[in-house]
What does this fold into?
Amino acid sequence: MEVFTTPAPLRRHMEQFRGAAPVVLVPTMGALHEGHLELVRKGAEMGPVVVSIFVNPTQFGPGEDFEKYPRDLESDLEMLRPLGVEAVFVPSVSEVYGTGEEGVTIQPGDRARGLCGERRPGHFAGVLTVVARLFGMVRPDVAVFGRKDAQQCLVIKQMVNNLHLPVKLVDIPTVREPDGLAMSSRNRYLNDEQRQRATCLIAALRAGEQLLHAGVFDARELRRTMWDILAEGSDEPDYAEVVCVDTFTQPDLITGNTLLAVAARVGPARLIDNMVFRISDHAVSPGCLLG
Ligand code: AMP
It folds into this structure.
């Protein structure tokens, strides 16, 4: 496993694999946990893996946690070493964005409307800009993302489709703690009491799931139920939404591939989570996001 800070030597190193197997990129912001490692393992089944570690300043808004976002490169590298990762790409901010230049940015399409796109103005422009730059620097054939960031997956898919980028996107199911809390680098911000209350996100989603299985397809009822659970357990519920994955609209009557998405602040951490279902002829089955 070699560590690179600039793109040209990284690409030269990966040249030996081109043509034989797809080069797989797993973009991360570091502070790695089992969720990230699962992305890497799934990626490694497809081809040689490049993991990027870059805390991207442009996706954080004013007053968000860019400065205090956990950074622990040594421990990240230790976690990656046993997984057979081919290369780790750890660029500096100036390597990605240049110095003293106002560079090109990418504005997201309609998949960035609502949910986190509405609550975090500029966030998805920052995400797309860094993902596009990473794609240019690494030139992967495949890029792996976590379903935990469902809207991020949809926003990136729209960019790849609209710009005809030659990258196949793969999404991986959310990896959870034993009590259901979605793993997140931001869980490190929680004390014991907050960690306990953070389970309100998965509790809200499970309540939504139960309503679907009980044949309740009225989106307002799901939103209300999920919101009430967030309101009780969190310090500040942010949203509890039901979204049609294919049209990215918020239907009154739930049908087709449907995203249940929640966000709430618990202590110092803003947490998000989601589940995807497919509803067809009143039958509920697991849905797909990038499909
Ligand atoms: P981050 O470092 O938070 O930017 O995440 C890097 C990638 O890991 C993104 O594609 C995330 O969606 C994914 N990811 C983060 N947490 C999880 C999780 N609990 N399960 C699966 N993927 C995750």
Summary: The chain has ten helices and ten strands. The longest strand covers residues 269-280. The chain has a mean pLDDT of 97.
